[in-house]
Amino acid sequence: MVGMVVSVQARHRKTVPQPPSRVQLSQSEARRLSYFYQEGIKCKLNSRLSEAHDLFQHCLSIDPTNPEALYEAAYLKFYFGEDSLGTEMFRRVVELDNKNPQYVQSLAAAYLARNQYDKAIPVIEHLSQLQTRRSDVLYQLVELYKTNGQTDDAIRAVERIEVLEGRSLQTSLQRYALYLDKGKKQEAFDVLEQYERESPYDLRIPMIRGKQYLQHGDSEAALRCFENVRRIDPQNEDLPLAMMEYYAQTGHPELRVALRDSLLYDSQTPDNMRVQMATQLIDDMKGEPNHHERIMQTLDTLVHLSNTASMHTLRVSYMMYSKVSDDSIANAMRDLLVVNPANENAQMRLVAYYLSKQDVENLAEVCRIGINTHPEKLTNYFYLALSQAQQKQNQPAIETLRSGIKQVDEHSEPQQVADFYALLGDILHEEGFVEESFQAYDSCLVYRDDNASCLNNYAYFLSLRNERLSDAERMSYRAIKLEPLNKTYLDTYAWVLFMQGNYTMARFYIDRVISPSQADSVLLADDDVHAEVLEHAGDIYALCDNVEQAMRYWSLAMQKGEGSAMLEKKLKLKQYIKE
Q1: Model pTM?
Q2: What is the three-class DSSP state of 565?
């Protein structure tokens, strides 16, 4: 009988898994392993990851139980997207060496990345035993146990944190919430009361307790907590909102409104509290007759009373939520920028607003504010230069763009940088700096070779100089592929073909811009058909031996105005004249 009892006990004894036995290497094998491992580390540090992977795999062919090589190989599996294999390899690493915190933490991270909480928890528990002073690991355990519905284990983890760091507001609130999750209301409140006894001057706890009593319907206990706070700190900023909630729940709406309004208009009310009261007022008034007008009047009054950035921001936010006119919102945003010039959201919205209104003067002013407060933001430089160019201030625009380009770094958006160079190229060409202009276009296409505006303008200016026409044809064709309905781009391509002597194809493309069947009145009324386009059409038709149609287009170009210096002579001689 004794033997049978021993047998049963042995069969049920809990055993600790032992790590797999390690391969015994000869001295030469150990040297080879060390050499290839060090080479693998060098490759990894130099970002030659494929080579590093192969070297670590070679190490494992020498010793498949070497945890260092297995760990490095597992790490690279994740880089190459083989997460499942990498996780399994990390598991084997920990089997081989479960005393190394780095290995254990990597396995836990791999499980967490795959949402395998059941597997991650025992690994993190093991890590907490290896590094007993790491409260961050215990905090992670608390969250995992909560997520996994293991409330008792979460409470024990919080208690371990308190042993390590002492009781704090954070741990007390965590234990409070966990006891509530278990339905143990009294134990939950006992936790808060215990912390309050130990930290009598931390008024956050009586405020929290009061709010919780209110939530659970015990208004008398809540009031005792709030009165205790008022006795110690009459100016406590959390107290008014709590008392307003108390008045609401105890059937005293008139007291709630009186408290709200007294705080709103008291000059001594802190700014953040005034904003809270104004937010409460907005919520209270919604749904009442003429509520929008009353709210706006109140917000205007409060803005003039306090004139703070937060109150201006609240007014702007309400106006945007209420979908008032863009003009009114823009005016409110300008007021906000006066008190808070660094408000980037207001800056960007005003930039968009003034762009839509084509108000270049105010656009320039807002962009200058943006450059002063956020000099690293490229957008302000670009739109300031654009507004300067539209006001014929080309030299300042060039300087602005070059200042913006100095802010470009590896984090800059390529499209944005390309737009800078494209605009710089346009302005430089207008100022007569042709070679510098072409250099700017080249820089633009380095950042984005599909910048249609740059491709078109570069091609057109080359064709005007009768230079690099094959490059011009290639760039112009790319532009119309990007925007096949753009009449300006089609006109450029037709003109490049014309300059190459390909008159038939030039006529094919110019007809996609202006059809010969269109009435004169239609062509004259089309803002996309400039005098230059009509003159090009006339030149193309003249060299296609259709002088009648050429004369018609030249005549229309003359009526539009701003044709070339040779236009009048073409009409007089009834023939194309090369400039």
Answers
A1: 0.65
A2: coil
